Automatic annotation (TrEMBL):
The keyword Zinc does not apply. Homodimer. One of its GO terms (molecular function) is 4 iron, 4 sulfur cluster binding. This is High-potential iron-sulfur protein. SUPFAM superfamilies: HIPIP (high potential iron protein). Keywords: 4Fe-4S, Electron transport, Iron, Iron-sulfur, Metal-binding, Signal, Transport. It comes from the Bacteria. It comes from Paraburkholderia polaris.
Length: 103
């Protein structure tokens, strides 16, 4: 009986921890900028700068990413961070859009 109660408690703690981590992950995902967002499409935003259409955006240069854009609000080590263009939405550090600036 004692073992069963301990087992139940351990299982409950494990499930609760998993649910809390899932909620954090969902919250982060919900706050990231989608490439399908009309504002993102207007500036050709891509989550992966290597996927930028170079014919459509000839100003893009290899090595330009959100992480080294002057409008990026995150730290250089963050996978996602704010951008002054997109309010509370987070952009991918390895992303890019046509408003890129390094000034
Ligand atoms: S303005 Fe800069 S930080 Fe914002 S999405 Fe475009 S490239 Fe990324």
């Amino acid at each position: 009986m004692q073992t069963s109660r301990r087992h139940f408690l351990m299982l409950t703690v494990g499930v609760s921890s998993s649910l809390m981590l899932s909620r954090v992950a969902l919250a982060d995902t919900a706050n990231t900028l989608s490439e399908a967002d009309p504002k993102a499409q207007a500036v050709g935003y891509k989550e992966d700068a290597s996927k930028v259409d170079k014919a459509k955006f000839p100003d893009y240069a290899a090595g330009q990413t959100c992480a080294n854009c002057s409008l990026f609000q995150g730290k250089s080590t963050d996978a996602y961070g704010g951008c002054t263009l997109f309010g509370d939405k987070q952009v991918a550090a390895r992303g890019w859009c046509s408003s890129y600036s390094n000034m």
